[in-house]
Design goal:
Number of strands: 12
Shape: elongated
Number of helices: 1
Radius of gyration: 21 Å
């Protein structure tokens, strides 16, 4: 036995995957899919999913058109329907808005009573205006945060009344 001490750094995600495989032919509108390493709300604004018939090479193809859930860019991919696609684990969490800093970061209250201070205000103009206006008026606001593949962004707002 050795008298040396060994120190191991722990990882928060415990090796959990950010995606899971799903057969391309089973992915439908309003689902999620990863195209070009970007989590897309596959087809939520629909975009579309279309399947072509089996050709002379034996595979029916799925044509996916989706909107990136963080940047709103439109992306496309064509995959054989029998092949697996990566589907992101997408979570939506609500937090109460506590403060907005001058540098564009928000302070949010978690369910456990801690604060979360690592999120920026959204870049989408109408949502940004609603958050700033509601906060300036002293309203109690709850923001919905969408997270997928290591990214997070405020995606919605609820007014729960005056303070």
């Amino acid at each position: 036995m050795s008298d040396e001490e060994h120190h191991f750094e722990s990882k928060a995600d415990a090796g959990a995957s950010k995606t899971y495989p799903q057969q391309a032919g089973t992915i439908r509108k309003n689902g999620y899919i990863v195209i070009k390493n970007r989590p897309l709300q596959g087809l939520s604004f629909v975009v579309e999913v279309s399947t072509s018939k089996t050709g002379k090479h034996g595979h029916a193809k799925c044509h996916f058109v989706g909107i990136d859930i963080f940047t709103a860019k439109k992306l496309e991919d064509i995959v054989p329907s029998s092949h697996n696609c990566d589907v992101p684990h997408v979570n939506r969490t609500d937090y109460q808005l506590i403060d907005i800093s001058e540098d564009g970061f928000v302070s949010l209250l978690t369910d456990s009573g801690d604060t979360k201070d690592d999120l920026r205000l959204p870049t989408e103009e109408s949502l940004l205006k609603q958050i700033k206006d509601g906060f300036a008026e002293g309203k109690d606001l709850v923001v919905s945060v969408m997270s997928a593949m290591g990214e997070e962004q405020i995606c919605a707002l609820k007014d729960i009344g005056p303070k």
